[in-house]
Amino acid sequence: MAECLTALEQSRNGFDVEIVVVDATGEQTTDYIENNFPQVKLVKLPERCGIPEMRAIGMREAAGDYFIVIEDHCMAPQNWFAEISKAHDAGYAVVGGSVENGATKRLMDWAVFLCEYSGFMSPIPAGEVEFLAGNNVSYERSAIEQIDEAIKKDFWEYFLQLELRKKNIKFLSAPAIVINHKKEFGFFYFLSQRFHYSRSFAAMRRRKLTVLKQFIYLAYMPVAPFHLMWRIVKNVAQKKKHRQELLLSFPLLAIFMCSYAVGELTGHLFGAGESLKKVE
Questions:
Q1: What pLDDT is attached to residue 48?
Q2: 208: number of Cβ within 10 Å
Q3: Quick one: pLDDT at residue 228?
Q4: In angstroms, rounded to a whole number, what is the distance separating the alpha carbons of residues 280 and 277?
Q5: pLDDT digits over 239-266, tens only?
Q6: Which of 40, 116, 132, 241 makes a 20 to 30 Å CA pair with 69?
Q7: Is 177 in contact with 83 (CB distance < 8 Å)?
Q8: How far, CA to CA in Å, does 157 sit from each of 19, 38, 41?
């Protein structure tokens, strides 16, 4: 958290930016922020809630014309706000960029990064795209205000962006907007995170599917791990980078994809349970 907030402060460069932190981890974190970053607007939550709801709270508390979303383990470079502003000036209500790996010491860290961000690591296309990374994206207030409150607080960013696209809002991918993902996960912790994320995601998706499509997804589940692995391999091959890291972390990735598939099946059959609140 401290490294993220320090990087954001250094990225201001004259821009009038309000930094809003929504926290549900407890007094130790909030006391640290209040003592070391008094300029930050801190929203304390009495208990843990899902990340989509925390994002919605942050948007509701923010006063600006744009909502820029980043996570506490991501580092922004000094030109971050400037590049976001430049992208919006091109006439787009939603802009975003790439995610690079800032934790490179362990094989586990590469497996985590490739599992989550192989599709958003550079090089990314410059121009209009269908989706943007949920932790490196900026929304114009006027666009977000068109979205139903239930979508904003109850659904992952994939569904939020899907709703924006249905309203013919265009997304701009700008390669110059870059953040570094920097967080070290333990094996079993990340394994559980993959399960809980995919379970909550599948439960959200099921709410939007017809009965026929629900059966189609059930039929897809046995091949899901293989399809997910193929997608990562395809991303790495197309981007022509981190091939060695992919090869070495392949066994870990295979295990994580199996956990993801089991989570999807569980969410599809039994709903989200408490999984949404367990994703960090």
A1: 86
A2: 10
A3: 95
A4: 8
A5: 999 999 999 999 999 999 999 999 999 9
A6: 241
A7: yes
A8: 20, 29, 23
Please tell me what DSSP assigns to residue 240. T
What residue type is 232 in one-letter code? Answer: I
How many residues in total does the chain contain? Answer: 280
Cα separation of 191 and 256, whole Å?
6
66: left (phi over 0), alpha (psi -120 to 50) or beta: beta
- Contact between 182 and 136 (Cβ < 8 Å): no
Number of Cβ within a 10 Å radius of residue 141: 14
| Amino acid in the structure at residue 126 | A
Q: List the chain residues with pLDDT less than 50.
A: none
Who contacts 168 (Cβ-Cβ below 8 Å, separation ≥6)? none
Is residue 139 a contact partner of residue 58, using CB atoms and an 8 Å limit?
no
Q: Per residue in 84-95, is it b (16+ CB within 10 Å) or e — as a string? A: beebbeeebbbb
Q: How many CB atoms lie within 10 A of CB 187?
A: 13
